[in-house]
Design brief:
Elements: E1 17-22, H1 24-33, E2 35-40, H2 54-67, H3 72-83, E3 89-96, H4 102-107, E4 113-118, H5 119-124, E5 134-137, E6 139-141, E7 159-161, E8 169-175, E9 190-194, H6 197-200, E10 203-206, H7 213-222, H8 231-234
Parallel strand pairs: 6-7
Antiparallel strand pairs: 1-3, 1-4, 2-3, 2-9, 3-8, 4-10, 5-8
Helix pairs in contact: 2-3
């Protein structure tokens, strides 16, 4: 089930559209299994994912140094242990946007398709799953200069480098060592979570930048998959 958490920010507009870009093989896998893949946060390409900013690390080090009565090694170990928390989180990312984004298609040029849903449909799609899923809107920060909040395990998870600000990310979260989730088996790279696809998927779009788009669209129709028209192509 999806669980709202007061530490994690949710969109005020519950009908805001959510987009997930994926290759055709990943879409096929989703439709066949009825499951979404949550990647382990430490496996993401962005090296800052799930880590504290430099300012926050320095603040935490000073606090730990005082706690351990000047023991530098113990203080460093405390900070490093904090960084290891990201290994316990698994993430599934969505783009928040009320309209189809040409910029995002350019960023994910290798992706042939996108699923479009809404926030309320997204969270409702986990009503019948056994795992506890949480979620948050991402806050963007300068990892070299700014300090993020400390004091709870979610703080580093809900921040991302300001270089990714255009992604307007909403991320779904599976915390593997939570009391509710520690009984479930996870893999080295991530975990697979069941979702109600009838609730989840509102529309499916093809990448408007793909060559031979009409041919691909026709192939999808042959297997009974309805593909929506891109507003970018129609100019509407």
């Amino acid at each position: 089930m999806f669980k709202r958490n007061s530490l994690l920010a949710q969109p005020e507009n519950t009908t805001i559209k959510m987009w997930r870009y994926m290759g055709s093989e990943r879409l096929k896998e989703l439709l066949e299994t009825g499951s979404l893949f949550f990647r382990r946060l430490s496996k993401f390409d962005d090296r800052f994912e799930g880590l504290l900013t430099e300012q926050s690390k320095n603040h935490l080090f000073r606090w730990a140094l005082d706690l351990h009565k000047g023991n530098i090694g113990a203080a460093k170990g405390f900070v490093n242990a904090n960084d290891e928390h990201r290994n316990n989180f698994h993430i599934n990312c969505w783009h928040m946007n009320s309209i189809e984004s040409y910029l995002m298609w350019r960023c994910y040029a290798q992706m042939e398709t996108a699923i479009q849903t809404t926030y309320e449909r997204l969270v409702a799609s986990f009503d019948s799953c056994n795992e506890v899923i949480e979620g948050t809107m991402i806050e963007y920060t300068d990892y070299d200069r700014e300090r993020i909040d400390l004091g709870n395990v979610y703080s580093p998870i809900k921040y991302k480098s300001h270089y990714y600000r255009d992604e307007k990310e909403y991320r779904l979260i599976f915390w593997e060592i939570s009391e509710a989730n520690k009984k479930f088996q996870v893999g080295d790279d991530g975990v697979i979570i069941k979702a109600d696809l009838d609730m989840l998927i509102e529309k499916i779009y093809l990448n408007p930048l793909l060559p031979e788009q009409k041919k691909i669209r026709d192939n999808y129709k042959l297997v009974g998959l309805k593909v929506s028209n891109n507003a970018i192509l129609s100019g509407s």
